[in-house]
Every structure is written in structure tokens, then in C-alpha cells.
Fold each of these.
Amino acid sequence: MQHDAIKTALLASYETDGGINHLDGINLPSQESVNELARDCMHLLFPGYFEKSGLTKKDVPALVSRLLAGIEDRLVSEVEKSLRFARDPDPAVHARQIAQALLGKLPELRKIIQTDVTAAFHGDPSARSVEEIILAYPCVLVISLQRVAHVLYKLGVPLVPRMITEYAHERTGCDIHAGATIGSHFFVDHCTGVVIGETATLGNNVKLYQGVTLGAKSFITDEKGHPVKGVKRHPELRDGVIVYPGATILGGDTVIGENSIVGSNVWLMQSMPANSIAYYQGDQASIIRPRKKKEAMIEEAADWVI
């Protein structure tokens, strides 16, 4: 009887408290199916690393054929749902084209993902092997899946790219929006608590530590007070930038110049020239000054690893 009363109250709330119901609407992408898609992509990108048993070279063609077929079918299904949600005029055809476009990008994605693994291995002296990096470092999962999701994002797919990056976020504690543009040799050490916004742009050889936020300073709103979509809101980090733990960098017009360093816990809403350093000194606001030659030499020799 108690359940009957609760059921009646819930059914009434579905009628009166709208906005979080999706009843009699377009079938939405399945979270579990997208999670499985993400896992299959990792198997395809890193053959032999995530299988339950050893993989030989002669087994690889069959594995790749099976994974490609499964990923394409699942991707077509979930992308088609997303396109129907967005009222695409021909979702079935476009979903198939998008799936094939993503699969065609996988060899290219593997090349840049290999640079990320290399950056992690050379960026952390505690790493003993590339195998350890791939199997145990959360940055591999989150960066690899972001690169996959970014392709779908650029192809205009709604919902699914964010769902893929959210799977990685749940697994790693690192939240990189599918829209962020990221160069080669990207390393996020420790990963936990890192947030990178949709319109952030990162050059090559960028290194971040835990707790870094690349966020928006403010939102432009329309006449109804709603945030305007598609505006550049997040910072740009150029080649060779290093950002230490807990730093926050905000704003779409904020540019951190090449080979600059942002120190721990710095709050930054202004651009930095190339080869400079920002840090706190006592209770003063962020100090930005040119990097000294000795500091650059120390960085190259020791990498200031935490």
C-alpha cells in the first residue's frame, strides 16, 4: 500500500514537474551503449593491452575486423538517435557517414595518441615502462577518448561526444570537454580534478598537473539572460606551457605564451608573454615575470616533477 501511494505521487510529479522527464519523445542515446563504445575504442587503439588473454600478431586482423564492425554498428545506432534528437533531416544516412568518417580517422588518431604516451613516459620519472603508462595512467584513457570524441564534436554530433568524455571523467576524475582543441604530446600528470572547457586551445607539448582549471571568466548572455553558445570562453595555452597543481586560468581572451610556467594555486585572468612565469609571493597577487635562464635549465633537467 505504501508503494501505491508513492507511485501515485511520482506519477503526479511527472505531470506537474516537467523538464526532467523524457516520455513519448525521441529515443535518446543509451549511456551503457556509449560506455561500451568507449571501451571498444580503447581496445582498437591499444591492441593487446586490455584483452583478457594474450594477443598475437596473427590474431590481430580478426580482432580488428570484429571491433570495427561492432563499433560501427553501435556508433551508427547511437549517433542516429542523437541526430533525430537534433531534428536532422536524414539521420540514418548521416549517422552512417559520420561513423565511417570517425573510423577512417583512427589511424591518424593513433599517431597523435602515441605522442601523448611518449609525453607521459618522458614527463614522469616514476614511470618504468610504456606498458605502465598505458595500463595505469589515467591520462591515457581521458586524452585518448577526448580525441575520439573531438572528431565527433567537429562532425556536429550532439550528445554522444559529451557522453564519451563523461565516461572518461567518471573513470579518471579529469573532465576534458569534447570541444577542446589539443595539440600533440599532451600530458596530464595525476589527472584528478583537472577541468578543460569547450573552447580551450592547447598547443603541442603542454603539461598540466592535478587540480588545474582552464575555465570561463564570464558568460555572454542574450536578451533573455541565457548564455550565448559557441563563443570563445576558455584560454589558449601555446606550445610548451606547464601549469602546476591547483592553478586556475580563465577567459577566452587569455593567452599563455610559448614555454611559460603557471605556478601552483595561481589565479590568472590575464595573458602571459612567451617564456614567462607566474607565481604567488606571500599575499601578493600573481606575479608575472620573464623566466630566468637558470629556471629553464632546471626545468629541462629535472622537469619539476611532483
Note: The chain is about 45% helix and 10% strand.
Amino acid sequence: MYGRKVKLRLAFILLVLTALILTIFLILKSLEENVVYFQSPSEISELTELDGKKIRVGGMVKKDSISLTSDQLKFIISDFKNEIIVTYSGVVPNLFEEEKGVVAEGYLKDRNVLSATKILAKHDENYMPPEVKEALEEK
């Protein structure tokens, strides 16, 4: 019914489409492992299970919650509804302070305590990460 040229073209097109689909799938699968989603303290309090994966928590640093010892920083992140205690050892960004927006990345010890590996602070007084702003507006 179809000539040899048509069959070869069809086979080539199917091969290219299959390779393209496979490539896109592999790229998305590899990116999935490196994506860390932002969550508010309220969303963390509603989690059904703590799986030990890296997590980002964002909100505002609660007033009078920062305590600093020789090797550890403790503070509370709030979304004005729920709070989570954060412990961190390392260099803190210059703009980190009370009543300012912050995102802490680390591992949950339980629903109320995060052991942070990285602290991200806003870069000027008008900026707030879009995820933090949306989460605070929703709550």
C-alpha cells in the first residue's frame, strides 16, 4: 500500500519522537530529585508523615525569638497562624533579622523543629519571596 520511502520516513519520524519523549522524561525525572518546594509553617503542621527529605520553610522571623549561642542560632519562623522553631549552625546572611522575611532550608526533626542547612534572607526592605508573600496572603 505505502511505498518504501513513505515507510522509511514514518519509521524515522517515530524514532525521533520516541527519542524526544524519552529525553524529556529523563530530564524531568532528574530535575525532580533536586527540586525543593517551599512550605509555610501551617502547611508543615498539616503534613501526614515526615519523610526526612530536604524541605524549605518560609515566613517571618518572630520578634524576640532569635537566640544565639557560640555554635548555634535558634529562631522561630511564623506565618501568623503557626510557628516552627529553626536551629542553624553557620554563617547568617547580613540582612537576617527579626520581623523580616526568611526561608530556611533543611530537615524536619518533628513538626515543630527544623534543622536548617541554609538560611536565605531577603535582599532589601521591599522584597519578599513570592512564595512567602502568597502564603502570608492566603493565611
Note: The helical segments are 4-34, 41-45, 130-138.
